[in-house]
Write the structure tokens for this entry.
Amino acid sequence: MKLKASDLPNRLTALRNGTLKPPEAVLLFGQDQGLIHAALASLRQATFQEEQADFNLENFFGGDLNIERLLNSCQSYPFMAARRLVILKDADQMNSGQVQALLHYLKRPSPSTLLLVLAGNLELQHALRKAFDQHESAWSIPFYALEGRELRQWLVSQLQQEGFQVEGDALQFLCDHLAGDTRNSRQELEKLILFMGEQRHIRLEDVLAMVGETTTQSSFGLAAAMTAGQSGAALAILDKLLESGEEPIALLGVISQRLRRLALCADGLQQGKDPKALAAQLQIFWKEQALFFEQSRSIAPRKLADSLLDCLEADRQLKGGGETPQPEGEIMGRLVMRLTNRFARRR
């Protein structure tokens, strides 16, 4: 049967209380492998006694699968336990023959075995997904990449569990740079937690020092923070880049390119073009697409045009235009502040 990820906590509680019959098979699939593996751990805890794992737990992998051995494991009786636990990971890597054999098993699954199947993205018409969706004693649960408010809540929850409070601008920066798989995001948070030590209050400076360092110290990170209206982050990244020897004229080129791509994306969306096609055409990195499309929709075209004119003026100044030569760092700092303040107001 089809379930939502948000349905799982209540069902786990019911399983622990004995008020819900355990499923005979569960499919956990989707983009967010971090949430999938967290759900796997919760299901194990709610349905299986770990001290009985030696004789009643087996793991299999779809990319290197002996399907006969998997099916034999599912049909085996538990040893001095109420049930067996069989885990199949990377199920999306099975070949069609293996999928059909597993579907045949699902027609009459063993009531003394819980089969947990993990997969990446599965299309709506994928045979495995359809079978679990329609099976009365099986659960089918998708885990999509967290975005917006859900990602924000997840980050706050993860940090609060470790005893940390996070400032608003630091949290916004985390949301903008950790979208995607929560498994990777958790690794970045662990680095941040180790960096903080006994200090329990997380500021933007702390996040910039530790999270996604290659991104936050790149020209692309500068352009992304600037168009997101994050003045503190943008100026901090600019300072790091200039200190490391980056050429201001090259940074200006990256900023101008992002503004042009935002304008092209906004125009394409207004014409009704498919976002996936636009992402491919404009070469938008998958992890950045949610933020990029949000900015394309929310930033007024006039602001993009004015910002490109500001970039032209900065280019003239960097190349020696004007009566009085100015330090390149000051030129870039003024530009970043002007554009960031403009985008912070959105429309």
Strands lie at 25-30, 57-61, 84-89, 113-119, 138-143, 165-166, 201-202. The chain has three domains: 5-143, 146-201, 217-344.
